[in-house]
Amino acid sequence: MSGTDGVVTKDIAGVKIEMIERGTGRPLLFLHPGIGIDPAAPVLDRLGAGARLIAPSHPGFGRSELPRAMTTVDDLAYFYLDLMEALDLRDAAVVGVSFGAWIAAEIAVKTTERIGRLVLADALGIKVGDRETRDIADIFAMTEAQFNEHAYADPAAAKRDYAAMAEADLVAIARNRESVARFGWSPYLHDPKLKGRLRRIRVPTLVLWGASDGIVTPAYGEAYAAAIPGARFERIERAGHFPHLEQPEEFARRVRAFALGPGAAP
Amino acid sequence: MKVFHFTEQPYPDAWDKHEGSLRVVLPNRILDPKIAAERFHRYYDEWRLADELGYDIMVNEHHSTATCMSSTVVVTLSVLARETKRARLLVLGYPIGHRPDPLRVAEELATIDVVSRGRLEMGFVKGVPYEIPVANTNPVFLMERFWEAHDFIIKAMTSHDGPFNWEGEFFNYRHVNIWPRPYQQPHPPVWSTTSSRANARVLGEKGYVIATLGSGYNTRALFDAYREGWASKGRTTPPGPDRFAYLGLVAVAASEDEARRRGELIAGYPRTSAIVAPAFRNPPGFLSVTDNARLLQGKTPPRSYTKDGRVVSMATASVQELTDAAIMFCGTPDQVYAQIADFTAHCGGLGNLLMMGQAGHLSHDDTVDSLTLFAKEVMPRLQAMKQPAPEATAAA
């Protein structure tokens, strides 16, 4: 399946969200980065082979509703605890990229009751350096071209033709940008408490990182992994901040090998 | 009509020393504090003269910029509360959506009102997009923060029976009891600025003074939205001209040639104001999602129009185009009076002219001469001018 197939609307704890659902098997909850998720992204079919893939748009992103009271990543984490309960996910693999990995970490420090494996790719969310060191490049002080330079191993491939896009897609892009600011403006794309709480994550965790990530460097990723007991750190070459987009095969292969067991690797 | 003398207190000495941004990132080593001191004192002298000549006074603040050295209205207001004798002191504005502590704002403004013996006009503004990264307040909640700060400040100024409690979304206080309380009762008049019809309507509902800048011959649409908001609250008489204000650049001189020369210098304000690094021009949430989607398609709504409907860009317009769009009033006293009178008719009434009487490289001598000439030749005629009857321009 691809394209818009398998995109459904769900009511979770009173919030209507759009959600991509594909395949059967062990549940794999994919939490998208701040730029949202395209149902046609090749990575989704690869993740969905042999698993029950669930890829929602976070409240405030894509076409998902946004309750006025939701203002923090903590709120989103509680929303996803509700979602896992509502869908009765058990032993789920939770896979997040960038902003989605920050949400995944905030979920896992609360409880891993329904989580079997955790994958954090190019995660935001923690403070590593001193008070005058910005760990996360200031995306709100960049033009789109500058952002692409930081975020992609191949910035030219990231260029988008807005003039050719449908109105609804442009609205979704504008919503995504606004919602990243809503949830992450200050403290800047992190929760000062999160690093100290990562020790509570007691499920096997893989920290995946695009080797060319200029938004959060691999060194930041290593610090993230070091704060989670027993976590593994791996790099993906020829990828920046969004390895699931730049190296979808390799990204899916690593996730499946780690999260769905040896038999799941193609 | 009241006329307020305004200058942004610029530091034009740095205007040729930037690499694409006069704001946010321009290093402050470029500012020579000795030159800055001379400039501040000069601007205060011009406001003192304005007070003597019968003007009212407007002050503002901006941050991390060579276009406006005033980074806190409280300093300018404090100096002028004591240095001037009669002028109304309009702050337009205090960017309360950015400020971390509205209790402090209430205390400052109440004190200035008392020291000036009740001459404060209290303008609250949302602030410009490129100062959001400087203040670091979340742009997505800017208007919610603005209105909560506003509600809090008004409550603090009007509560006189001991401390009250405040547990809001953005601000928390347990013992609010400001000393001194304001001189004017129940509180100094409230003003605000806007460039959107939706916000203009809200200001009309509240009955505050609405001020616009750069809206030119599009101003009537904003004022009509105000009139609709005003009427929607059951008011039976339409708003008078004192509810409306417009910021115009004024270049006046005895001869047309000299007025043009001054106009070129004053046009330094609109020509430098928008020199900002592109990344800081549109923080997420400052504009609506719909507007941002349109921007992605390359559609930017024009803001300024001439009387005959031509679109004018403030940043690049000639003095003639600025004058055609009523962004600037430029010429001899007779010409300037005629331009302002015509614009007042367009607005359906205009009780407050916020006159940028100094901008850019306009010298002290030129400023003194312009202010004096305008006060003598134009102001009395504006004060005597018959405003359009409010009934004639009431919302349909």
Question: Which labels suit this protein?
Answer:
heterodimer, A: 266 residues, alpha/beta, 8-stranded mixed beta sheet, 9 helices, 19% strand, B: 396 residues, 8-stranded parallel beta barrel, two-stranded antiparallel ribbon, 14 helices
Strand arrangement, major sheet of chain A: 1-2-4-3-5-6-7-8
Based on secondary structure, the structural category of chain B is alpha/beta
How many distinct helices of chain B? 14
Average pLDDT reading of chain B: 95
Tally of helical runs of chain A: 9
List the helices and strands of chain A in order: EEEHEHEHEHHHEHEHH
- The total of beta strands of chain A comes to 8
In what range is the share of β-strand residues of chain A? 15-25%
- Looking at the overall shape, the CATH architecture of chain A is 3-Layer(aba) Sandwich
What CATH calls the topology of chain A is Rossmann fold
Low-confidence stretches of chain A: none
Looking at this structure, what is the CATH superfamily of chain A?
A: Alpha/Beta hydrolase fold, catalytic domain
What is the helix fraction of residues of chain A, given as a range?
A: 25-40%
Shape descriptor of chain A? globular
Number of strands of chain B: 13
Please, could you describe this protein's structure?
The complex is a heterodimer of chains A (266) and B (396). Helix content of chain A is 33%, strand content 19%. Chain A is built from 9 helices and 8 strands. Chain A has helices spanning 42-48, 73-86, 99-110, 144-151, 167-184, 194-197, 218-226, 243-246, 248-259; strands spanning 7-12, 15-22, 26-31, 51-56, 92-97, 115-121, 205-210, 232-236. By secondary structure, chain B is of the alpha/beta class. Chain B has helices at residues 33-53, 73-83, 102-115, 132-135, 142-158, 197-206, 219-232, 256-266, 268-273, 289-296, 319-324, 333-347, 364-377, 379-384; strands at 2-6, 56-59, 89-94, 120-124, 164-167, 172-176, 190-193, 209-213, 244-252, 304-305, 311-312, 328-331, 352-356. In chain B, the strands form 3 sheets. Chain B has an 8-stranded parallel β-barrel, surrounded by 7 helices. Chain B has a two-stranded antiparallel sheet with strand order 5-6. In chain B, strands 10-11 form a two-stranded antiparallel sheet. The longest helix of chain B has 21 residues, at 33-53.
